[in-house]
Design brief:
399 residues; mainly alpha; 2 domains; 18 helices; 2 strands
């Protein structure tokens, strides 16, 4: 049977599994993510022996991802950041970051005592938000020769939305009712005027230099420069002040603002969706050595980590919100956005607004109150904050 598992056939199965995941995610409004479906199907295939454990590796996608895919995606994420929006919602950014501090505090104290150092530290990375943070943690687990830890962090990534969505929904409903009860809905939008930032050195590129190959080449150039600059921050052997992943993000932001890179560069080059699909290829491999008893042993740490860390995120977010005069429900909703990311942050906000039975005009006003904060928080957590958090906390496993 294994003779049928050519690289092309393996790629087809991989693509079909995650395509089914997208269908389920759309039908359930992102409550069940594509990661749960795709990875779940591979897990069943590995446990039953129907899928060879080297099937995904044979496609070459994991190699593409580790060699340059993650670098290009992080640079792209930098080019997609809306600096003006982040400046307008600076309170939201600080509340979201405080939530990650709460996550770290709970992981390094309560969770270490309950689940052990490796399980607590590595498990906190996927909870901080984003697949790349999960990959940073799973790579560290594999370096330790701990396949069960790699599977564990992947499962946390898959199931974290079940912890975030209910909390966000309840808190947003409380915030919406508070706004209505206090008569704040009629007040002018909080967004205000955007600050105009323009530090572009290159105003525009000639049309002949806007091909997809040229766009990808420029992103690769920034990637090489990022590696070089990151290596300059090394001291005392392998100790590094600025991790490569963080440098990719920062350089993506900087070179986009300077005009060297276009906004959403990989999307413009038509390469984004394929690289995102390739990124998913890292995840199924974490289940190669998993068996049923091992899976059952993970239930307690997965549930425990999600509950305890979610509480830490909410508490620290509320404390920061109080200092910045952000209501407790709104602060808690902002904090748990790291457990969801986009588009779940938008979906849950729309669902809450729809449940209020407001007029079309009032619904738009309410959306203006809630949506920018949820979008900015999810974006902050899943992009630079989660990568920075994972890059900082995961090396603690080796110390």
């Amino acid at each position: 049977m294994e003779t049928m598992w050519t690289p092309l056939f393996s790629f087809m199965i991989f693509a079909v599994f995650f395509a089914l995941g997208d269908v389920v995610a759309n039908k359930t409004k992102a409550i069940i993510s594509a990661i749960i479906v795709g990875c779940g199907l591979f897990l069943v295939g590995y446990l039953t022996g129907l899928i060879p454990t080297d099937a995904v590796d044979s496609t070459g996608l994991p190699l593409i991802t580790s060699n340059f895919g993650i670098a290009l995606l992080l640079i792209h994420m930098g080019t997609s950041m809306n600096i003006e929006e982040l400046l307008r919602e600076w309170k939201t950014v600080l509340v979201a970051l405080a939530g990650l501090v709460g996550l770290g505090v709970m992981a390094l104290t309560v969770c270490v005592m309950l689940f052990g150092r490796e399980w607590a530290i590595l498990g906190s990375a996927p909870i901080s938000g984003g697949i790349i943070a999960t990959i940073i943690a799973s790579d560290a687990a594999n370096e330790l020769g701990r396949g069960e830890l790699a599977a564990y962090v992947t499962l946390l990534c898959a199931f974290q939305m079940f912890a975030g969505l209910p909390v966000a929904s309840v808190m947003l409903r409380k915030e919406a009712k508070r706004i209505l009860n206090n008569g704040e809905l009629s007040l002018a939008s909080e967004t205000g005027k955007a600050r105009k930032l323009d530090i572009r050195v290159i105003k525009s590129w000639p049309k002949s230099m806007q091909s997809y190959t040229f766009l990808i080449a420029k992103a690769a150039m920034v990637g090489v420069l990022s590696v070089w600059l990151s290596n300059l921050t090394k001291f005392g052997g392998d100790t590094q002040i600025i991790n490569q992943n963080i440098m990719f993000l920062l350089m993506g932001v900087l070179f986009c603002e300077l005009g060297f890179l276009e906004k959403n560069i990989l999307a413009k080059a038509g390469a984004l969706n394929f690289l995102l699909l390739a990124l998913f290829s890292i995840l199924p491999g974490n289940f190669k050595s998993v068996d049923v008893p091992m899976l059952l042993s993970m239930i307690w740490p997965i549930v425990g980590m999600l509950v305890i860390c979610s509480a830490g995120i909410a508490i620290f977010s509320i404390v920061m919100g109080k200092a910045l005069k952000v209501s407790a429900p709104m602060a808690a909703a902002i904090g748990v956005c790291c457990l969801m990311g986009y588009p779940a942050t938008q979906i849950v906000t729309d669902e809450v607004i729809a449940s209020l039975e407001l007029s079309a005009e009032d619904s738009e006003l309410m959306r203006g109150k809630l949506m920018p904060k949820m979008i900015v928080s999810g974006f902050t957590s899943v992009t630079i904050a989660s990568v920075a958090f994972a890059s900082f906390i995961v090396p603690m496993v080796f110390s």
